[in-house]
């Protein structure tokens, strides 16, 4: 696979990534290498990664507890202290080996330690390969509110090795697949068509589909790194999806949803809003609803759940001047940003989802 050129860094694939890594560690003369991983990637991915890491630079492993609930400032404080105690300096580099939580929080830690040190993302989940590790967004949650604290700063590189996906359970693969479906819906009808019949897909297809998904996200981000315009297209499904994810994360009576599981619901809801606003046809909406519902488990919402999710929208980081912003579909493969919806229409979307 050819290397993808992003704004100020490259996305490497498989052996090309490890060749680059060995070279950059030598050329940049880093004082120390810190690898941030969680307990899962330490067990399942770190042995392979270390076997392919050719360097004489001293390596320190910092292991975090797994899970979205640990993507917070408290965890950052622990890592900042560890970096200090282990002799981290301005010439150290952080290698983030893990899923979206690790690349998000690891990037944020690197951007803020000593006013910023280099970092490289090595995503190990489908979600982080096609979304979280690409585009320079780094951050943490504020309580149950997603990604409220953060910075946009691009990594030194991203290295995608799909062999790590062999360690993932099916629900984690589906979580990442939601972002791939989103890329088709907002940007490329042909790509959506390739993805929507999952029975026709095999493991040989996956590498090519991941590559295409990264290309789509990179094209969008490269046009608008600071998210003032077209990059908002990537928020499709996320306005309501993040509210649902946050609500299920904070509720002691609910089982937490994976990011992609919540975003899948958000995409159905926001497709309904798109239909009601005349931006997509009913046929397109029914197609989207059928495809996504066939892949992801149905989630039951009662009236209290819906109200609580809607209440959380006010905290969405995309809001401007107190107005909730949606990226809505304008036909499959196209998007319309900076759209609004009243609560009545959002309730209708939830009720249609339940039908």
TrEMBL record:
Q: Which InterPro entries match?
A: Dehydroquinate_synthase (IPR050071), DHQ_synth_AroB (IPR016037), DHQ_synth_fam (IPR030963), DHQS/DOIS_N (IPR030960), DHQS_C (IPR056179)
Q: Quote the EC number.
A: 4.2.3.4
Q: Which cofactor does it need?
A: Co(2+); NAD(+)
Protein name in UniProt: 3-dehydroquinate synthase
- Recorded source organism is Flavobacterium jumunjinense
Pfam families found in the cross-reference section: DHQ_synthase, DHQS_C
Protein role: Catalyzes the conversion of 3-deoxy-D-arabino-heptulosonate 7-phosphate (DAHP) to dehydroquinate (DHQ).
Tell me which PANTHER family the record gives: 3-DEHYDROQUINATE SYNTHASE (PTHR43622)
Q: Where is the 3-dehydroquinate synthase C-terminal domain?
A: 176-319
Entry GO MF terms: 3-dehydroquinate synthase activity
**Where would I find the 3-dehydroquinate synthase N-terminal domain in this sequence?**
62-174
Keyword field? Cobalt, Lyase, Metal-binding, NAD, Nucleotide-binding, Zinc
């Amino acid at each position: 696979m050819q290397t993808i050129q992003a704004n100020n860094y490259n996305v490497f694939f498989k052996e090309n990534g490890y060749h680059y890594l060995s070279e950059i560690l030598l050329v940049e003369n880093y004082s120390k290498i810190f690898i941030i991983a969680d307990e899962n990637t330490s067990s399942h991915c770190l042995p392979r990664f270390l076997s392919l890491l050719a360097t004489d630079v001293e390596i320190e492993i910092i292991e975090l507890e797994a899970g979205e609930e640990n993507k917070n400032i408290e965890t950052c404080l622990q890592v900042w202290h560890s970096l200090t105690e282990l002799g981290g300096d301005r010439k150290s580099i952080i290698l983030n080996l893990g899923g979206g939580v690790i690349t998000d929080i690891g990037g944020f830690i690197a951007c803020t330690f000593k006013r910023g040190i280099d970092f490289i993302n090595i995503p190990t989940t489908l979600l982080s390969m096609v979304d979280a590790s690409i585009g320079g967004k780094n951050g943490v949650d504020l309580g149950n509110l997603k990604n409220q604290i953060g910075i946009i700063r691009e990594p030194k590189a991203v290295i995608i090795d799909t062999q790590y996906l062999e360690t993932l359970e099916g629900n984690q693969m589906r979580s990442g697949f939601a972002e791939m479906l989103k890329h088709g819906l907002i940007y490329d009808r042909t790509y959506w068509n390739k993805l929507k019949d999952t029975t026709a897909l095999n493991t040989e297809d996956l590498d090519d589909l991941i590559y295409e998904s990264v290309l789509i996200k990179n094209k969008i981000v490269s046009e608008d790194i600071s998210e003032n315009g077209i990059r908002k297209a990537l928020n499709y499904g996320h306005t309501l999806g993040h509210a649902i994810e946050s609500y299920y994360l904070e509720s002691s009576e609910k089982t937490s949803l994976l990011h992609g599981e919540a975003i899948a619901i958000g995409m159905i809801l926001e497709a309904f809003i798109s239909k009601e606003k005349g931006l997509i046809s009913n046929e397109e909406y029914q197609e989207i609803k059928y495809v996504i519902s066939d892949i992801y488990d149905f989630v039951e919402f009662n009236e209290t759940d819906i109200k609580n999710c809607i209440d959380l929208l006010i905290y969405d980081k995309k809001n401007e001047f107190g107005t909730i912003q949606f990226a809505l579909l304008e036909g499959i493969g196209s998007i319309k940003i900076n759209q609004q919806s009243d609560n009545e229409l959002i309730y209708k979307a939830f009720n249609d989802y339940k039908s």
